[in-house]
Design goal:
A hairpin with a 4-residue loop joins β9 and β10. α1 crosses α2, α2 packs antiparallel against α3 and α6 packs across α9. The strands form four sheets. Strands 10-9-8-11-12 form a five-stranded mixed sheet. The chain has a four-stranded antiparallel sheet with strand order 1-7-6-2. With about 400 residues, the chain is α+β, with helices and mostly antiparallel strands.
């Protein structure tokens, strides 16, 4: 299993300047290679006897001309431009496979980063050795044991981080889930998550809490003259606030997903259409503030690391409209109705709790009726893959 540990760095001024220059070199190489790719591809379409562009050919081409045309590239690690072109090749591979959009040119100050291969750096406790620079202090040691594959140095606001990729043995560093049974999780806006056990987790809503300060700093930035030192300071201050909002949200999601995967072996959630949900202008800000997609992403990889599984209910599964006691489905249930009574059995339901219980029943039914998928069942092997997401499920209320 390949995992990454993102560690904050503590560079001095000289080291931070080196990082910025290396990130700029990687950005220049990426943009140069993208422009060359487009030019060579257009030439190939005109004359098929010419070679098609590839990342390997572009790397050789850059190596042949950089000493004469770009001598400043030699002042930073050679991995910065080479790995950037390899990343461009991967981006085109994903584009042609239909997994991503057409690659775009990188902009200065937006996701500044560069990547090092495992033979170009070394880790010793709380420090990392960078080529042409020396040792840089890290805020914590590497958490995982295994073969180190690469490291990506990136900037978030005015801080630098090292994301170290490690190939670890499957599930060797985390214990199995306690297996307290099956749980259903219903995500919402007023509360981040409602569990089928009756627990309610209120999200921190950091964007809403810091919106006034965010608006004030945004106005301050808009009033600064472009290119001035004060505008640069205001931009850095606004970036730090955005980073703080993202960190608060990530912290809450990590704590929730870690707790769920540690306690439960099987977790049922909905396949939410987040892109469609944020089109509602009344709820878009609140939905984006919760981070639904990030919750699902973290839940899936953490469950796999602990030998558990995440069962995704179909997007059209009426979890809120089905009575969790008798199985009757309400025809109409507006979003404004938070509590409703079943017309058949008369049981009064809380909308979110009822949906969570239905998701739990869906997950339990899918593990029983899964037709031979690996990892199916509550006693799945730690090395087993999660159960197939698309299955025929016989929903039985309990």
């Amino acid at each position: 299993m390949i995992v990454a540990h993102k560690i904050a760095l503590d560079p001095n001024d000289k080291q931070a300047t080196y990082f910025a220059r290396a990130a700029g070199t990687a950005r220049f190489a990426y943009n140069w290679a993208l422009a060359e790719w487009q030019r060579q591809y257009a030439a190939w379409k005109q004359d098929n006897s010419l070679p098609k562009p590839s990342q390997a050919a572009l790397r050789r081409q850059l190596n042949a001309i950089k000493r004469e045309q770009f001598p400043w590239m030699l002042e930073v690690t050679k991995c910065a431009p080479q790995m950037a072109i390899m990343q461009l090749g991967k981006a085109f591979e994903n584009f042609f496979a239909g997994r991503a959009k057409y690659p775009k040119f990188r902009k200065k100050g937006v996701h500044d980063r560069f990547t090092l291969t495992n033979d170009q750096f070394r880790i010793d406790g709380c420090r990392i050795l960078i080529p042409n620079l020396g040792w840089v202090r890290m805020r914590e040691p590497l958490r995982f044991n295994g073969k180190i594959l690469s490291a990506t140095i990136s900037r978030v606001a005015d801080r630098w981080f090292a994301s170290i990729t490690v190939d670890v043995p499957d599930q060797s560093h985390l214990p199995k889930a306690e297996n307290q049974g099956v749980v259903g999780v219903d995500l919402g806006v007023s509360a981040l998550a409602t569990l089928s056990t009756g627990e309610t987790i209120t999200g921190p809503k950091p964007h809403k809490a810091l919106l006034t300060r965010l608006q004030r700093l945004s106005r301050s930035l808009s009033r600064k003259q472009k290119g001035s030192a004060n505008r640069k300071k205001a931009k850095a201050k606004l970036a730090r606030l955005h980073a703080r909002i993202a960190n608060i949200r990530q912290d809450a999601l990590h704590k929730l997903t870690t707790d769920l995967t540690r306690r439960f072996h099987t977790i049922g959630i909905e396949d939410l259409n987040v892109r469609g949900m944020v089109r509602n202008r009344h709820l878009a800000r609140s939905i984006a503030d919760m981070g639904f997609f990030e919750f699902r992403r973290q839940l899936e990889y953490k469950a796999a690391m602990r030998g558990g599984q995440v069962v995704i209910a179909d997007r059209w599964f009426p979890s809120s409209k089905i009575c969790s006691c008798c199985g009757h489905k309400q025809e109409e249930l507006p979003l404004s109705v938070r509590r409703w009574s079943c017309s058949i059995c008369g049981v009064e339901h809380d909308r979110d709790l009822n949906a969570a219980i239905n998701l739990k029943n869906y997950a339990a039914s899918s593990t029983v009726s899964a037709c031979g998928g690996e990892g199916a069942g509550l006693g799945g092997d730690a090395k087993a893959k999660p159960a197939p997401m698309k299955q025929e499920v016989s929903f039985v209320p309990v």
